[in-house]
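Per your request, structure below.
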Protein backbone atom coordinates (compact mmCIF):
# COMPACT_ATOMS: atom_id res chain seq x y z
CA UNK A 1 0.00 0.00 0.00
CA UNK A 2 1.39 3.44 -0.95
CA UNK A 3 0.81 6.47 1.25
CA UNK A 4 0.24 10.08 0.30
CA UNK A 5 0.64 13.02 2.62
CA UNK A 6 -2.77 14.54 3.19
CA UNK A 7 -3.16 18.09 1.88
CA UNK A 8 -0.39 20.30 3.22
CA UNK A 9 0.17 18.19 6.34
CA UNK A 10 2.76 15.64 7.38
CA UNK A 11 0.05 13.02 7.90
CA UNK A 12 0.59 9.90 5.77
CA UNK A 13 -2.58 8.18 4.61
CA UNK A 14 -3.09 5.07 2.49
CA UNK A 15 -4.24 5.78 -1.05
CA UNK A 16 -7.14 3.46 -0.33
CA UNK A 17 -9.00 4.33 2.88
CA UNK A 18 -11.54 2.02 4.49
CA UNK A 19 -15.04 3.48 4.60
CA UNK A 20 -17.01 2.15 7.55
CA UNK A 21 -20.49 3.40 6.67
CA UNK A 22 -21.36 -0.28 6.11
CA UNK A 23 -20.13 -1.36 9.56
CA UNK A 24 -23.40 -2.44 11.19
CA UNK A 25 -26.63 -3.59 9.55
CA UNK A 26 -28.86 -0.98 11.22
CA UNK A 27 -29.67 0.68 7.88
CA UNK A 28 -30.46 -2.56 6.03
CA UNK A 29 -27.51 -2.47 3.63
CA UNK A 30 -24.44 -2.94 5.84
CA UNK A 31 -22.52 -5.84 7.38
CA UNK A 32 -22.89 -7.39 10.83
CA UNK A 33 -20.22 -7.33 13.51
CA UNK A 34 -18.36 -10.45 12.43
CA UNK A 35 -18.28 -9.61 8.69
CA UNK A 36 -17.25 -6.01 9.45
CA UNK A 37 -14.37 -7.38 11.52
CA UNK A 38 -13.25 -9.58 8.62
CA UNK A 39 -13.35 -6.54 6.31
CA UNK A 40 -11.33 -4.52 8.82
CA UNK A 41 -8.79 -7.36 9.23
CA UNK A 42 -8.34 -7.74 5.48
CA UNK A 43 -7.70 -4.01 5.09
CA UNK A 44 -5.14 -3.94 7.90
CA UNK A 45 -3.49 -7.06 6.52
CA UNK A 46 -3.07 -5.25 3.18
CA UNK A 47 -1.24 -2.40 4.95
CA UNK A 48 -4.02 0.19 5.10
CA UNK A 49 -3.92 2.81 7.85
CA UNK A 50 -6.79 5.21 7.03
CA UNK A 51 -10.34 4.69 8.36
CA UNK A 52 -13.40 6.86 7.78
CA UNK A 53 -16.55 6.98 9.90
CA UNK A 54 -19.20 9.48 11.08
CA UNK A 55 -21.12 9.92 14.29
CA UNK A 56 -24.45 9.02 12.67
CA UNK A 57 -23.26 6.05 10.52
CA UNK A 58 -25.46 3.09 11.45
CA UNK A 59 -26.68 5.17 14.39
CA UNK A 60 -23.26 5.26 16.06
CA UNK A 61 -22.48 1.56 15.63
CA UNK A 62 -19.88 2.22 12.92
CA UNK A 63 -17.75 4.31 15.30
CA UNK A 64 -18.20 1.77 18.10
CA UNK A 65 -17.09 -1.14 15.92
CA UNK A 66 -14.18 0.78 14.41
CA UNK A 67 -12.94 1.80 17.86
CA UNK A 68 -13.23 -1.77 19.14
CA UNK A 69 -11.44 -3.32 16.15
CA UNK A 70 -8.62 -0.76 16.36
CA UNK A 71 -8.22 -1.42 20.09
CA UNK A 72 -8.30 -5.21 19.68
CA UNK A 73 -5.43 -4.96 17.19
CA UNK A 74 -3.53 -2.48 19.38
CA UNK A 75 -3.49 -0.16 16.37
CA UNK A 76 -4.37 3.24 17.82
CA UNK A 77 -0.95 4.76 17.10
CA UNK A 78 -0.87 3.39 13.58
CA UNK A 79 -4.48 4.09 12.63
CA UNK A 80 -5.51 7.40 11.09
CA UNK A 81 -9.13 7.78 12.18
CA UNK A 82 -11.46 10.22 10.45
CA UNK A 83 -14.97 10.89 11.64
CA UNK A 84 -17.63 13.57 11.17
CA UNK A 85 -20.40 15.67 12.70
CA UNK A 86 -23.39 17.61 11.25
CA UNK A 87 -26.29 15.15 11.07
CA UNK A 88 -28.77 15.19 13.94
CA UNK A 89 -29.59 12.10 16.00
CA UNK A 90 -31.84 13.80 18.57
CA UNK A 91 -35.35 14.50 17.23
CA UNK A 92 -36.65 17.80 18.54
CA UNK A 93 -33.24 19.26 19.40
CA UNK A 94 -32.08 21.56 16.58
CA UNK A 95 -28.73 22.14 18.26
CA UNK A 96 -27.83 18.43 18.17
CA UNK A 97 -27.07 18.81 14.47
CA UNK A 98 -25.63 21.38 12.09
CA UNK A 99 -22.28 23.08 12.34
CA UNK A 100 -22.63 25.54 15.20
CA UNK A 101 -20.11 25.52 18.04
CA UNK A 102 -22.60 24.01 20.48
CA UNK A 103 -23.16 20.98 18.27
CA UNK A 104 -19.51 20.49 17.31
CA UNK A 105 -18.43 20.45 20.96
CA UNK A 106 -21.28 18.06 21.83
CA UNK A 107 -20.63 15.76 18.86
CA UNK A 108 -16.89 15.43 19.40
CA UNK A 109 -17.41 14.04 22.91
CA UNK A 110 -19.83 11.40 21.59
CA UNK A 111 -17.44 10.34 18.84
CA UNK A 112 -14.46 10.10 21.20
CA UNK A 113 -16.52 7.94 23.54
CA UNK A 114 -17.83 5.58 20.84
CA UNK A 115 -14.38 5.31 19.24
CA UNK A 116 -12.82 4.65 22.66
CA UNK A 117 -10.01 7.09 22.02
CA UNK A 118 -8.88 10.45 23.34
CA UNK A 119 -8.18 12.00 19.94
CA UNK A 120 -9.50 12.02 16.36
CA UNK A 121 -6.90 12.25 13.61
CA UNK A 122 -9.10 14.01 11.06
CA UNK A 123 -12.39 15.64 12.07
CA UNK A 124 -14.81 16.49 9.26
CA UNK A 125 -17.74 18.80 9.02
CA UNK A 126 -20.06 16.31 7.27
CA UNK A 127 -22.22 18.69 5.27
CA UNK A 128 -22.99 22.40 4.93
CA UNK A 129 -25.90 23.52 7.13
CA UNK A 130 -26.44 26.69 4.98
CA UNK A 131 -26.23 29.04 8.01
CA UNK A 132 -23.28 28.70 10.34
CA UNK A 133 -20.57 31.22 9.42
CA UNK A 134 -17.24 29.71 8.41
CA UNK A 135 -15.64 31.85 11.17
CA UNK A 136 -17.51 29.89 13.85
CA UNK A 137 -16.60 26.51 12.38
CA UNK A 138 -12.92 27.30 11.89
CA UNK A 139 -12.50 28.87 15.33
CA UNK A 140 -14.15 25.83 16.95
CA UNK A 141 -11.98 23.47 14.88
CA UNK A 142 -8.91 25.39 16.02
CA UNK A 143 -9.99 25.12 19.67
CA UNK A 144 -10.35 21.35 19.25
CA UNK A 145 -6.88 21.03 17.74
CA UNK A 146 -5.35 23.15 20.50
CA UNK A 147 -7.16 21.10 23.13
CA UNK A 148 -5.59 17.91 21.72
CA UNK A 149 -8.91 16.23 20.89
CA UNK A 150 -8.38 16.58 17.15
CA UNK A 151 -5.21 16.49 15.01
CA UNK A 152 -6.42 17.75 11.60
CA UNK A 153 -9.67 19.10 10.20
CA UNK A 154 -11.64 18.70 6.97
CA UNK A 155 -14.79 19.71 5.12
CA UNK A 156 -17.17 17.33 3.37
CA UNK A 157 -20.04 18.13 1.01
CA UNK A 158 -19.76 21.92 1.15
CA UNK A 159 -19.88 24.47 -1.69
CA UNK A 160 -16.43 25.31 -3.03
CA UNK A 161 -16.86 29.00 -2.17
CA UNK A 162 -17.51 28.03 1.46
CA UNK A 163 -14.39 25.85 1.61
CA UNK A 164 -12.32 28.64 0.03
CA UNK A 165 -13.64 31.13 2.58
CA UNK A 166 -12.97 28.73 5.47
CA UNK A 167 -9.40 28.15 4.31
CA UNK A 168 -8.77 31.87 3.88
CA UNK A 169 -10.04 32.57 7.39
CA UNK A 170 -7.76 29.85 8.76
CA UNK A 171 -4.74 31.24 6.92
CA UNK A 172 -5.31 34.85 7.91
CA UNK A 173 -6.20 34.16 11.52
CA UNK A 174 -3.58 31.47 12.11
CA UNK A 175 -6.14 28.73 12.73
CA UNK A 176 -5.61 25.07 11.90
CA UNK A 177 -6.12 24.93 8.12
CA UNK A 178 -8.45 22.55 6.30
CA UNK A 179 -6.39 19.52 5.19
CA UNK A 180 -8.96 17.55 3.30
CA UNK A 181 -12.11 17.91 1.23
CA UNK A 182 -14.24 14.76 1.35
CA UNK A 183 -16.41 14.65 -1.79
CA UNK A 184 -18.34 12.30 -4.02
CA UNK A 185 -16.33 11.49 -7.15
CA UNK A 186 -16.60 8.65 -9.63
CA UNK A 187 -17.04 7.93 -13.32
CA UNK A 188 -20.73 8.80 -12.98
CA UNK A 189 -20.28 11.84 -10.69
CA UNK A 190 -17.62 14.24 -11.96
CA UNK A 191 -19.21 17.42 -10.68
CA UNK A 192 -16.20 18.31 -8.49
CA UNK A 193 -13.76 18.66 -11.36
CA UNK A 194 -14.37 22.30 -12.26
CA UNK A 195 -14.00 23.84 -8.81
CA UNK A 196 -12.71 21.52 -6.13
CA UNK A 197 -9.68 19.99 -7.82
CA UNK A 198 -8.03 23.38 -8.38
CA UNK A 199 -9.20 24.54 -4.96
CA UNK A 200 -7.69 21.53 -3.21
CA UNK A 201 -4.42 21.41 -5.11
CA UNK A 202 -3.74 25.15 -4.89
CA UNK A 203 -4.78 25.58 -1.28
CA UNK A 204 -3.49 22.47 0.48
CA UNK A 205 -6.61 20.33 0.76
CA UNK A 206 -6.21 16.71 -0.37
CA UNK A 207 -9.40 15.24 -1.79
CA UNK A 208 -10.69 12.10 -0.11
CA UNK A 209 -13.18 10.53 -2.47
CA UNK A 210 -16.45 8.95 -1.37
CA UNK A 211 -18.63 6.51 -3.32
CA UNK A 212 -15.98 5.68 -5.96
CA UNK A 213 -18.31 2.91 -7.18
CA UNK A 214 -21.44 5.07 -7.05
CA UNK A 215 -22.84 2.91 -4.24
CA UNK A 216 -22.05 -0.29 -6.16
CA UNK A 217 -23.33 0.73 -9.62
CA UNK A 218 -19.80 0.61 -11.08
CA UNK A 219 -19.08 -2.86 -9.69
CA UNK A 220 -21.07 -4.35 -12.58
CA UNK A 221 -23.71 -6.04 -10.45
CA UNK A 222 -26.45 -3.87 -11.98
CA UNK A 223 -27.20 -4.42 -15.65
CA UNK A 224 -28.63 -1.86 -18.09
CA UNK A 225 -31.31 -4.37 -19.08
CA UNK A 226 -32.74 -3.97 -15.58
CA UNK A 227 -33.48 -0.27 -16.29
CA UNK A 228 -34.84 1.70 -13.39
CA UNK A 229 -36.19 -1.47 -11.83
CA UNK A 230 -32.89 -3.13 -10.88
CA UNK A 231 -33.55 -6.18 -8.77
CA UNK A 232 -31.40 -8.50 -6.71
CA UNK A 233 -29.05 -7.76 -3.87
CA UNK A 234 -27.24 -4.52 -3.25
CA UNK A 235 -27.56 -1.06 -1.75
CA UNK A 236 -29.09 0.58 -4.82
CA UNK A 237 -31.97 -1.90 -4.67
CA UNK A 238 -32.45 -1.64 -0.90
CA UNK A 239 -32.43 2.16 -0.98
CA UNK A 240 -34.53 2.61 -4.13
CA UNK A 241 -37.01 5.46 -3.69
CA UNK A 242 -35.26 6.82 -0.56
CA UNK A 243 -34.80 10.23 -2.19
CA UNK A 244 -31.15 10.35 -1.03
CA UNK A 245 -29.23 11.83 -4.00
CA UNK A 246 -26.24 9.58 -3.23
CA UNK A 247 -28.37 6.57 -4.15
CA UNK A 248 -30.07 7.93 -7.29
CA UNK A 249 -27.75 6.25 -9.76
CA UNK A 250 -29.92 4.27 -12.16
CA UNK A 251 -30.24 6.46 -15.26
CA UNK A 252 -29.83 6.17 -19.04
CA UNK A 253 -26.65 8.25 -18.93
CA UNK A 254 -25.12 6.08 -16.22
CA UNK A 255 -25.94 2.83 -18.02
CA UNK A 256 -23.87 4.13 -20.95
CA UNK A 257 -20.90 4.69 -18.63
CA UNK A 258 -21.34 1.24 -17.07
CA UNK A 259 -21.33 -0.34 -20.55
CA UNK A 260 -18.04 1.40 -21.50
CA UNK A 261 -16.50 0.52 -18.14
CA UNK A 262 -17.45 -3.12 -18.67
CA UNK A 263 -15.78 -3.13 -22.12
CA UNK A 264 -12.60 -1.45 -20.82
CA UNK A 265 -12.40 -3.79 -17.81
CA UNK A 266 -12.72 -6.81 -20.11
CA UNK A 267 -9.83 -5.54 -22.28
CA UNK A 268 -7.70 -5.01 -19.18
CA UNK A 269 -8.61 -8.36 -17.64
CA UNK A 270 -9.65 -6.55 -14.46
CA UNK A 271 -12.89 -6.29 -12.53
CA UNK A 272 -15.08 -3.28 -13.22
CA UNK A 273 -14.70 -2.21 -9.57
CA UNK A 274 -10.91 -2.22 -9.84
CA UNK A 275 -10.93 -0.12 -13.01
CA UNK A 276 -13.42 2.38 -11.53
CA UNK A 277 -11.38 2.79 -8.32
CA UNK A 278 -8.11 3.02 -10.26
CA UNK A 279 -9.56 5.72 -12.52
CA UNK A 280 -10.63 7.95 -9.64
CA UNK A 281 -7.53 7.31 -7.48
CA UNK A 282 -5.32 8.65 -10.27
CA UNK A 283 -7.26 11.85 -10.91
CA UNK A 284 -5.45 15.12 -10.04
CA UNK A 285 -5.82 16.26 -6.45
CA UNK A 286 -6.99 12.92 -5.05
CA UNK A 287 -5.17 11.93 -1.87
CA UNK A 288 -7.18 8.88 -0.97
CA UNK A 289 -10.21 6.89 -2.12
CA UNK A 290 -12.67 5.57 0.46
CA UNK A 291 -13.55 2.02 -0.49
CA UNK A 292 -16.56 0.41 1.15
CA UNK A 293 -17.75 -3.18 1.22
CA UNK A 294 -20.42 -5.42 2.65
CA UNK A 295 -18.42 -8.60 1.99
CA UNK A 296 -14.72 -9.44 2.47
CA UNK A 297 -14.47 -10.59 -1.18
CA UNK A 298 -15.58 -7.14 -2.36
CA UNK A 299 -12.85 -5.48 -0.33
CA UNK A 300 -10.23 -7.94 -1.64
CA UNK A 301 -11.32 -7.05 -5.16
CA UNK A 302 -11.08 -3.32 -4.47
CA UNK A 303 -7.68 -3.62 -2.77
CA UNK A 304 -6.27 -4.82 -6.10
CA UNK A 305 -7.28 -1.58 -7.80
CA UNK A 306 -3.94 0.20 -7.73
CA UNK A 307 -1.48 -2.38 -9.01
CA UNK A 308 -2.00 -1.66 -12.72
CA UNK A 309 -2.20 1.34 -15.04
CA UNK A 310 -5.06 2.16 -17.38
CA UNK A 311 -3.40 2.76 -20.79
CA UNK A 312 -4.06 6.18 -22.34
CA UNK A 313 -6.37 4.92 -25.08
CA UNK A 314 -8.63 3.08 -22.60
CA UNK A 315 -8.57 6.00 -20.15
CA UNK A 316 -9.64 8.29 -23.00
CA UNK A 317 -12.62 6.03 -23.71
CA UNK A 318 -13.69 6.18 -20.05
CA UNK A 319 -13.22 9.94 -20.08
CA UNK A 320 -15.32 10.35 -23.20
CA UNK A 321 -18.15 8.14 -21.92
CA UNK A 322 -18.32 9.95 -18.58
CA UNK A 323 -17.54 13.54 -19.69
CA UNK A 324 -19.82 16.29 -18.44
CA UNK A 325 -20.36 19.39 -20.59
CA UNK A 326 -18.39 22.44 -19.42
CA UNK A 327 -20.50 25.23 -17.95
CA UNK A 328 -19.85 28.97 -17.89
CA UNK A 329 -17.40 30.40 -16.79
CA UNK A 330 -15.25 27.28 -17.27
CA UNK A 331 -15.92 27.45 -21.03
CA UNK A 332 -13.69 30.56 -20.96
CA UNK A 333 -10.62 28.85 -19.52
CA UNK A 334 -9.72 26.55 -22.43
CA UNK A 335 -6.85 27.18 -24.88
CA UNK A 336 -8.98 29.15 -27.35
CA UNK A 337 -9.78 32.13 -25.12
CA UNK A 338 -6.74 31.80 -22.85
CA UNK A 339 -4.54 32.22 -25.94
CA UNK A 340 -5.99 35.71 -26.21
CA UNK A 341 -4.43 36.53 -22.81
CA UNK A 342 -0.85 35.46 -23.55
CA UNK A 343 -0.30 37.24 -26.84
CA UNK A 344 0.37 33.90 -28.48
CA UNK A 345 3.29 32.99 -26.17
CA UNK A 346 3.38 29.42 -24.85
CA UNK A 347 2.64 29.43 -21.14
CA UNK A 348 2.28 26.39 -18.87
CA UNK A 349 -1.30 25.62 -18.02
CA UNK A 350 -0.60 25.37 -14.27
CA UNK A 351 1.01 27.80 -11.84
CA UNK A 352 4.68 27.22 -11.03
CA UNK A 353 5.03 24.41 -8.49
CA UNK A 354 1.55 23.07 -9.17
CA UNK A 355 2.90 19.65 -10.17
CA UNK A 356 6.36 19.39 -8.59
CA UNK A 357 8.22 16.31 -9.90
CA UNK A 358 8.05 14.40 -6.66
CA UNK A 359 4.27 14.44 -6.63
CA UNK A 360 3.70 13.08 -10.11
CA UNK A 361 2.28 9.61 -10.10
CA UNK A 362 0.03 7.87 -12.57
CA UNK A 363 -1.87 10.60 -14.33
CA UNK A 364 -0.54 13.01 -11.70
CA UNK A 365 -1.63 13.96 -8.23
CA UNK A 366 -1.36 17.59 -7.28
CA UNK A 367 0.21 19.44 -4.39
CA UNK A 368 -2.57 18.13 -2.18
CA UNK A 369 -1.28 14.62 -2.55
CA UNK A 370 2.51 14.07 -2.36
CA UNK A 371 3.45 10.44 -2.79
CA UNK A 372 5.43 8.74 -0.05
CA UNK A 373 6.65 5.26 -0.92
N1 LIG B 1 -18.93 12.43 3.28
C1 LIG B 1 -20.00 11.86 2.81
O1 LIG B 1 -21.04 12.52 2.62
C2 LIG B 1 -20.00 10.41 2.49
C3 LIG B 1 -21.09 9.85 1.81
C4 LIG B 1 -21.04 8.50 1.49
C5 LIG B 1 -19.95 7.73 1.87
N2 LIG B 1 -18.92 8.29 2.56
C6 LIG B 1 -17.74 7.49 2.98
O2 LIG B 1 -17.23 6.82 1.84
C7 LIG B 1 -17.16 5.42 2.09
C8 LIG B 1 -17.36 4.69 0.80
O3 LIG B 1 -18.61 5.07 0.23
P1 LIG B 1 -19.53 3.99 -0.46
O4 LIG B 1 -19.75 2.86 0.48
O5 LIG B 1 -20.69 4.71 -1.00
O6 LIG B 1 -18.55 3.49 -1.63
P2 LIG B 1 -18.83 2.74 -3.00
O7 LIG B 1 -17.55 2.08 -3.35
O8 LIG B 1 -19.41 3.64 -4.01
O9 LIG B 1 -19.95 1.65 -2.65
C9 LIG B 1 -19.63 0.58 -1.80
C10 LIG B 1 -20.68 -0.50 -1.97
O10 LIG B 1 -20.62 -1.06 -3.29
C11 LIG B 1 -20.71 -2.48 -3.23
N3 LIG B 1 -19.38 -2.98 -3.60
C12 LIG B 1 -18.17 -2.50 -3.19
N4 LIG B 1 -17.16 -3.17 -3.78
C13 LIG B 1 -17.73 -4.10 -4.58
C14 LIG B 1 -17.20 -5.09 -5.42
N5 LIG B 1 -15.87 -5.24 -5.58
N6 LIG B 1 -18.07 -5.90 -6.10
C15 LIG B 1 -19.40 -5.75 -5.95
N7 LIG B 1 -19.97 -4.82 -5.15
C16 LIG B 1 -19.14 -4.00 -4.46
C17 LIG B 1 -21.10 -2.80 -1.79
O11 LIG B 1 -22.51 -2.64 -1.63
P3 LIG B 1 -23.58 -3.80 -1.83
O12 LIG B 1 -22.96 -5.10 -1.40
O13 LIG B 1 -24.73 -3.38 -1.01
O14 LIG B 1 -23.89 -3.79 -3.31
C18 LIG B 1 -20.45 -1.67 -1.03
O15 LIG B 1 -21.00 -1.45 0.23
C19 LIG B 1 -18.23 5.19 3.17
O16 LIG B 1 -18.01 4.00 3.90
C20 LIG B 1 -18.07 6.42 4.01
O17 LIG B 1 -16.96 6.25 4.89
C21 LIG B 1 -18.93 9.63 2.87
Amino acid sequence: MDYYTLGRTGLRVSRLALGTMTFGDDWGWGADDSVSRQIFDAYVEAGGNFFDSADLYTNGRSEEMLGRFVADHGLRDKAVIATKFSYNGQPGNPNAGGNGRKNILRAVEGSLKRLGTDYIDLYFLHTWDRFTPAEEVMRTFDDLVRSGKVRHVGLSDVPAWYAARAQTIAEWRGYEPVSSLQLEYSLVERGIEDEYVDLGTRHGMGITVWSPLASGLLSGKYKPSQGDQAEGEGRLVTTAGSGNPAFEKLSERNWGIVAELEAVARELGRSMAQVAVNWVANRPGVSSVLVGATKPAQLQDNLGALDFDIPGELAARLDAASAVPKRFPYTFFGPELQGMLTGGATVGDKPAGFYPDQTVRGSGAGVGADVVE
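The first helix runs from residue 33 to 45.

Regards,
D.
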